[in-house]
Design a protein that fits this description.
Blueprint (H helix, E strand, L loop, with lengths): L50 H10 L14 E2 L11 H7 L10 H14 L3 E5 L2 H12 L5 E4 L4 H9 L3 E4 L20 H11 L7 E4 L12 H13 L4 E4 L3 H11 L8 H11 L2 E5 L9 E5 L2 H8 L1 H5 L10 H13 L3 H20 L12 E5 H4 L9 H13 L1 E2 L1 E3 L19 E5 L7 H16 L7 E5 L5 H4 L1 E4 L3 H13 L4
Bound molecules: pyridoxal-5'-phosphate.
């Protein structure tokens, strides 16, 4: 029987119409397996260094997975930033780039795609997400101002603080509980927002920031309903609403999947509505659009003009903003493909599958499974390690030893110390295993699960870490740590005993 197009659901992006929604493909066995709606046509060979080398490499890297060399990593689950697999259409578009310092056609293609997809009038290009944050913070954050947000991202907070402001996190309480059934744990608590406005007065509030797919609390989405309500509070108090759309693709998917009022809306309609609710939206093109770059979108001329003059100063001329023309072409196509549910569902579905397999083995993970990656609750996994010995960092180092898998610490190590030098303990101690889109196969994800199951059985062997080199700002990027005991040797010896001659 020929396969007929799924009625009314497909977006035709210049490909042949009649795409089938992956959620409509059922396995005869009844198994719930995420099915890839793409095929792999370019591959990169991987190496898995032997155990003895892994032990040596993690020590050389100061137990900081950022400092591992990629050639020594088997599965790179550090991040999805700039490492999602591109489509053939993106690669093809990169060949047609128009190289010029000013007035490049590649820029105009990107600008008009953003207008079409998001409905915003003005676009300011930037080389990545944090560059947008620098511009926003320099323009709007003054000493003594506050920025309420559902939750912070590391670079966002650093830019606000650098400009003399402070951040206030007002995510709903469920957002900070590791396990929950709440479908939108990234929602802002409206009462907390009103209380903050009453306490500080709107003159002290630089802007209100919503982050799509909240990175640091497990890639959790906000609902469209919540964003609408936040905008109402902003309007009633004459406040600017700024959206960080870096993880919007996952958030769009969750809104479409979980929010009743959006079931009949297309992804593009939801995106349009979201952008129309925010005065300013910025994004990292390393995440949104499966490319590299970023930018700021607004429909308000006055706001645009305020930010515009900083672009040539920090980023580059207004028609590239630090991006290569090739990346702009890839971003244009990548943003277009973000409107395709089959494409944006791949990440969340792999993550949900991984989370459910880990739960089946009793391993504590953030629920509901979010976007970006699978988040292991290190506070529970290694509950014998105190927070000042960085349990999530220790678990990340242990997983590299056990399987050559590189995850990212998202806990106290990723926080900055308080001004008095004391540790600012993170709300959650998470080991994030990012799922760059379309990069890993299911058997590779199974391997990661297998090594985690082994580690969980041997978790009592994992010990803490202490800083031996600690940078003042964003210390997690290049700080170096040492194990507090010889636990890593003991863990390696147990691995050798259990796996014998296996890598
Ligand atoms: C939510 C969020 N905002 C901002 C950024 C910063 O973007 P970039 O890495 O492109 O500077 C990131 C990057 O991970 C992010 O996840």
């Amino acid at each position: 029987m020929p396969i007929r197009p799924w009625p009314g659901k497909s977006l035709n992006h210049g490909l042949h119409g009649g795409m089938i929604k992956v959620s409509k493909v059922r396995f005869f066995s009844g198994e719930q397996v995420p099915l890839e709606m793409h095929k792999v046509r370019i591959v990169q060979k991987l190496q898995l260094p032997p155990l003895e080398n892994r032990l040596e490499y993690i020590k050389e890297a100061g137990n900081n997975t950022y400092l591992l060399k990629n050639r020594d990593v088997f599965l790179d689950m550090l991040t999805d930033s700039g490492v999602n697999a591109m489509s053939e259409r993106q690669q093809a578009a990169m060949l047609l780039a128009d190289d010029s310092y000013a007035g490049s056609e590649s820029y105009f293609r990107l600008e008009s795609k953003i207008k079409e997809l998001f409905g915003t009038q003005f676009f300011l290009p930037a080389h990545q997400g944090r560059a947008c944050e620098n511009i926003l913070a320099q323009v709007f954050v003054k000493p003594g101002t506050i920025v309420p947000m559902n939750y912070h991202f590391t670079t966002t907070k650093a830019h606000v603080v650098l400009n003399g402001g402070v951040i206030e996190e007002i995510v709903i309480d469920e957002g900070l509980s590791v396990t929950s059934k709440h479908p939108f744990k990234g929602n802002m608590d409206l009462q907390k927002l009103r209380d903050l406005i009453r306490k500080w007065g709107n003159g002290k509030i630089a802007f209100v920031r919503m982050e799509a797919g909240t990175n640091l609390i497990g890639g959790q989405p906000f609902s469209l309903e919540n964003l609408e309500a936040v905008r109402k509070v902003c309007d009633a108090n004459d406040l600017l609403l700024v959206l960080d759309a870096s993880l919007l693709a996952d958030n769009l998917y969750f809104i479409k999947e979980r929010e009743p009022q959006c079931q009949s809306m297309s992804i593009k309609e939801i995106a349009h509505r979201i952008f129309s609710l925010c005065h300013i939206t910025y994004f990292s093109g390393r995440k949104l659009g499966f490319a590299r770059g970023g930018g700021i979108c607004t429909s308000e001329r006055e706001l645009y003009l305020k930010m515009r003059e900083l672009i040539p100063l920090y980023e580059g001329f207004l028609t590239y903003g630090g991006m290569s023309v090739r990346e702009m072409e890839a971003l244009t196509v990548g943003l277009d493909e973000t409107m395709d549910e089959d494409i944006i569902s791949q990440g969340p579905q792999f993550i949900a599958w991984m989370a459910s397999e880990l739960i089946r083995h009793g391993i504590p993970v953030v629920t509901p499974a979010g976007g970006l990656g699978c988040h292991i609750d290190a506070a529970q996994f290694v509950d014998h390690i105190p927070q000042n010995e960085y349990p999530a960092g220790a678990l990340a180092a242990a997983l590299y030893i056990a399987g050559g898998i590189r995850g990212m610490e998202r806990g106290t190590m990723s926080e900055q110390r308080s001004p008095d030098g004391s540790e600012a303990f993170a709300d959650m101690e998470l080991l994030r295993l990012a799922m760059p889109r379309r990069v890993f196969t299911l058997s590779q994800v199974k391997y990661a699960i297998d090594r985690l199951v082994w580690l969980y059985a041997n978790r009592h062997l994992i010990g803490g870490l202490r800083f031996v080199e600690e940078p003042k700002t964003l210390r997690f990027f290049f700080g170096r740590l040492a194990a507090v005991s010889d636990w890593q040797e003991k863990l390696a010896a147990q691995f050798k005993a259990d796996f014998v001659d296996s890598l």
